[in-house]
Design a protein that fits this description.
By secondary structure, this protein is an alpha+beta fold. It contains eleven helices and 25 strands. The longest helix has 22 residues. The chain is globular, with a radius of gyration of 27 Å.
């Protein structure tokens, strides 16, 4: 069965189209997993389908047979779908000669047989001058209808959805951050995969959802391709020669969609999700139009399917504007006297469509945590869980070894999760749970003082007190 990884504005329709054709879509993004309401394997993809930067079509790259299968399905969409084979496919290796250097961010290079590429200066050691020769590999192919030239780099690399092997790296690293990145690097030692000498491993974001078996399969696939690439260029002279193709183990085909093709994709997408007439036609216009279409459809879908009258459609808004997993979010801690104090920024490590966000912050050493009394130490992590509209939120402080130092629950006005900041007004009274399980309400006197100063109304103070007591009962169980 052909496996494919799909990304870009045509993803939902192409995922459904390929599934109906008997292909297996793998490494699906989180929105696609939610949209189809099923799991997708994190397996290596034989073909990758990516929307072109101008949104006019897609590029299909990968194993020749898999590319042929996928491109056949896309070409058959409608009468105005066109298809071309790339003469500089992704991953191809060329000997190249610099034609035009000295300006901009890179040089135009001759790849032989009339082909041209673009070599960035920052990827090359030393000064680049006209006539210089390099052995390069195609990183980003360019569609025939675009003025851009294929982007090439002077090192060998094997790209994959889960991991990338590169001659320009050493050891093992990860493209993501935090605890999961450390896990991926550590788990690599458990994989019984022999990587060719001189190739560094870098785990990509998609690997965060992969299990050990999928990681092993992906690394094995990448290692196999690296060996094939080495074999393909083994007979080439050590120094770059006349411009020309040395190896093209992968294939790239371009599919351009006309208006009827885009409307055909609309029909396919409509079998999965709320889809306005001209969905893909509008999204192909520009980035702003694309975002507007997604937002309008998400709002309509939310109102008709899952959101009650008057309920805020958090998922629809957050998916378009944030916050989402991986974002950096500030905690804007408001005070009843009008001040706003930043409690710092953290990374969104978890997200749920009903309006839940988990934020993790690295803490600096020195001092102690308010009311808890536990010392602040280097390596501590604060894990805060917010929910849109809730009158409180908990922060659990953890030591470097994962041991809890206690939980601090802020009572506040209903939380709002904006794209770059959590906002609320702190109502002074809080609830703490010590590491030994002891639960207490603290700072009630500060709430009383705020009432006396006219900063908090009696009704709001009563609400805050009731919330604190309810949280105390829940934590004491």
């Amino acid at each position: 069965m052909t496996t494919a990884r799909v990304r870009g504005i045509y993803t939902t329709a192409v995922t459904r189209l390929l599934a109906e054709a008997g292909c297996e879509v793998v490494q699906a993004s989180e929105p696609i997993r939610e949209r189809f309401d099923r799991s997708f394997d994190a397996a290596p993809a034989a073909a990758a389908v990516e929307t072109t930067r101008d949104r006019q079509g897609v590029g299909v790259s990968g194993e020749p047979d898999a590319v042929e299968t996928v491109a056949d399905e896309l070409e058959a969409l409608a009468i105005d779908a066109f298809r071309w084979a790339a003469d500089a496919p992704r991953g191809a290796v060329f000997d190249a000669e610099v034609l035009e250097a000295g300006g901009g961010s890179g040089a135009v290079v001759d790849l032989g047989d009339g082909r041209r590429g673009f070599l960035k200066y920052d990827g090359v050691d030393g000064y680049v001058d006209d006539g210089n020769r390099y052995r390069v590999q195609v990183r980003e192919p360019a569609p025939p209808w675009d003025d851009d030239r294929p982007l090439v780099a002077p090192t060998l690399e094997v790209q994959g959805g889960l991991c990338t092997l590169s001659r320009d790296r050493s050891g093992v690293s990860a493209a993501l951050r935090g605890e999961r990145a450390e896990e991926l690097v550590g788990m690599t030692d458990l994989l019984s995969v022999e990587v060719p000498d001189g190739w560094g491993i870098r785990w990509q974001h998609a690997a965060a959802d992969a299990d050990l078996e999928a990681m092993g399969d992906a690394l094995e696939d990448a290692a196999k391709r690296a060996r094939q690439l080495e074999d393909a260029v083994a007979d080439a002279p050590a120094e770059p020669g006349e411009p020309g193709l040395l190896a093209a183990p992968r294939r790239t085909e371009w599919c351009w969609f006309g208006r009827e093709s885009r409307f055909a994709l609309d029909d396919v997408r409509r079998r999965v999700e709320t889809t306005m007439p001209g969905h893909h036609r509008t999204k192909a216009a520009d980035r702003a139009a694309s975002a507007a279409v997604d937002f309008a459809e998400a709002i309509c879908g939310s109102l008709s399917d899952s959101v009650g009258d008057g309920e805020f459609p958090f998922a629809a808004v957050a998916r378009q504007f944030g916050p989402e997993r991986g974002d950096r979010l500030e905690i804007g801690h408001g005070k009843p006297d009008g001040r706003r104090i930043s409690l710092g920024r953290g990374e969104v490590t978890d997200w749920a469509p009903e309006g839940k966000v988990t934020l993790e912050r690295s803490m600096s050493g020195g001092g102690s945590y308010d009311a808890l009394g536990a010392p602040k130490e280097e390596g501590d992590v604060a894990v805060t869980k917010f929910r849109e509209g809730r009158w409180w939120y908990p922060t659990t402080y953890k030591a470097a070894d994962g041991a809890s130092k206690g939980t601090y629950v802020n009572v506040c006005t209903p939380v709002e999760l904006f794209p770059d900041c959590v906002r609320y007004v702190d109502l002074h009274v809080d609830v703490i749970r010590q590491s030994d399980g002891t639960v207490d309400i603290v700072d009630a006197d500060e709430l009383e003082a705020a009432v006396d100063d006219g900063l908090v109304s009696d009704d709001l103070a009563e609400k805050a007190t009731n919330v604190a007591e309810a949280v105390e009962r829940a934590l004491s169980k």
